[in-house]
Specification:
Layout (H helix, E strand, L loop, with lengths): L1 H19 L2 E6 L12 E6 L2 E7 L5 E7 L2 E8 L6 E8 L4 E3 L13 E10 L9 E7 L5 E8 L5 E7 L3 E9 L2 E9 L3 E9 L5
Parallel strand pairs: 1-7, 8-14
Antiparallel strand pairs: 1-4, 2-3, 2-5, 5-6, 8-11, 9-10, 9-12, 12-13
């Protein structure tokens, strides 16, 4: 019994010794606005082989330990975001390397409803600096304002919304002139529409 206990202790000490000779990586995965992204899978690869995989916590933080000295590739995959990678990340023994604030994932455009539109006057010319308001039309007919934007020099505007079926109302306004259009969306895609404003001629 004593021999078994001694053997277990030796194995444990050896295991701790080996672990102490390894290093690790930690960091925070963020959006372009700086918010942490939860549930991102961080995969560590060496020579094209996956060695370890962890997920970011609720604040976007992660830590990978037990890595031998060497240069590793890191792959980041998060639902609704484009995959990203860091290559040749150096790990040293007995050190947990804190990665810089460059772990940023961009939203995957393929998972968004993108509404592109143009505002014209009654003569078909582009209307610049018109305010366009985006509202979601609810089932009871009420509307919830989601945001607003101004048309650019070409009279164009763009809104991005999460995927899913919905009805949106877009209202263009310039001075006392106002016009609106509604659009139904059913999935992630690019939707286009044009709004005509009866702008008084100078």
């Amino acid at each position: 019994m004593k021999k078994l206990g001694l053997l277990t202790l030796i194995v444990l000490i050896c295991g701790l010794s080996v672990f102490a000779q390894t290093g690790g990586l930690k960091g925070k995965v963020r959006t372009s606005k700086g918010d942490g992204i939860a549930g991102v899978t961080v995969t560590v690869r060496l020579d094209g082989k996956d060695l370890k995989a962890v997920k970011t916590d609720g604040k976007g933080n992660f830590i990978v330990q037990g890595l031998k000295s060497g240069a590793y590739d890191l792959i980041f995959d998060g639902k609704g975001y484009s995959s990203s990678a860091l290559y040749k990340v150096e790990v040293k023994e007995k050190k947990t390397r804190d990665l810089p604030d460059r772990l940023i994932l961009a939203v995957d455009q393929g998972t968004l409803v993108i509404i592109r539109g143009s505002v014209f006057n009654q003569d078909g010319r582009s209307v610049t600096a018109a305010e366009v308001t985006l509202e979601k039309v609810n089932g009871d007919g009420s509307a919830t304002k989601l945001g607003s934007a101004y048309t650019n020099i070409s009279g164009e505007f763009i809104f991005r919304q999460p995927e899913g079926a919905a009805k949106y109302r877009l209202t263009a306004k310039l001075k006392d002139n106002k016009a609106a259009k509604e659009i139904d969306v059913d999935s992630a895609a690019i939707y286009r529409l044009a709004i005509t404003l009866n702008v008084e001629k100078d």
